[in-house]
Amino acid sequence: MSAATRSGGAACTPAPARWPTVIGVSQLSFFSAESVPPAIADLTGMLAGPGQAVLLNSPQGQAARLSVVVDRLWRAEALAEMITDAGLQPDIGRTDENTPLVRTAVDARLVPLAGEWTRGAVKTVPPQWLPGPRELRAWALASGGPEAEDRYVLGLDPHAPDTHSVLASAMMRVGIAPTLIGTRGSRPALRISGRRRLSRLVENLGEPPAHPEALTHWPRI
Q: Who contacts 169 (Cβ-Cβ below 8 Å, separation ≥6)?
């Protein structure tokens, strides 16, 4: 589902725009996540990272659930807020390894999205998918972090290697050309470097969550 196809979410008044996290710059971005109405499509950013979509059969018919394991509780809480904003019910739990986990409730409205992002039991990326501001925000919340002062990485799913180059191409098409790294290890990612690319990323993501630790994991320039 592309960023242009933003349907299925609850009607919601857009949150007031706020200042992006850019050192030494005070310029309101008209393309930030705060300026875009929430939609279920926002949650595809979780799937661009290590998130999973599962199609389920129930007595009421087919439904689906999205989930992602994260490394910090603040990430799970911020993603739960995005899930709520999209009109779905979130659930925060723990894996058997005591790692934070956030997921949606099982919901029939997720079936089209889950169907586009899976081929059998394998995750795939829809050919026309482009990450808009809120999709990028969900991706950064799920697996984003600084690699250095002038580099930021968006984590990929190590269990879905066929998605890596497709996601890199999708980022290029929205003007944030990344470098694919770590493909031979357990932590593949898209590295974003350079002031212009980082500026565009920051403008799209908007402000970090209110948690103090979130600021250290947000891109800065």
A: none
Domain spans, the chain: 33-216
Cα distances from 218 to residues 65, 67, 94, 221, in angstroms, run: 27, 22, 24, 10
* Axis crossing angle, helix 133-143 with helix 73-85, rounded to the nearest 10: 150
- pLDDT, position 35: 75
The domain covering 33-216 belongs, at the CATH homologous superfamily level, to: Homing endonucleases (3.10.28.10)
CA distance 190 to 77: 24
Q: How far apart are CA 95 and CA 2, in angstroms?
A: 31
Render pLDDT for 77-116 as a digit per residue (tens, 0 to 9). Answer: 999 999 999 999 999 999 999 999 999 999 999 999 999 9
- Dig out the tokens for 47 from the structure: 């799937």
Best CA proximity match to 124, nearest among 84, 170, 163, 87:
163
Q: What is the dihedral of CA 122, 129, 114, 156, to 10 degrees?
A: 50
Closest CA to 166 of 34, 48, 17: 48
The distance of Cα 166 from the centroid of its chain, to the nearest Å, equals 15
CA–CA gap between residue 42 and residue 83 (Å, rounded): 9
List the end-to-end C-alpha distance of the chain, in Å, as a whole number: 30
Residues 6+ apart with CB under 8 A from 191: 147, 151, 152, 153, 178, 179, 180, 181
Entry pTM = 0.85
Q: How many whole angstroms separate alpha carbon 97 and alpha carbon 77? A: 18
- 8-12, 58-62, 168-172: least confidently modelled range: 8-12
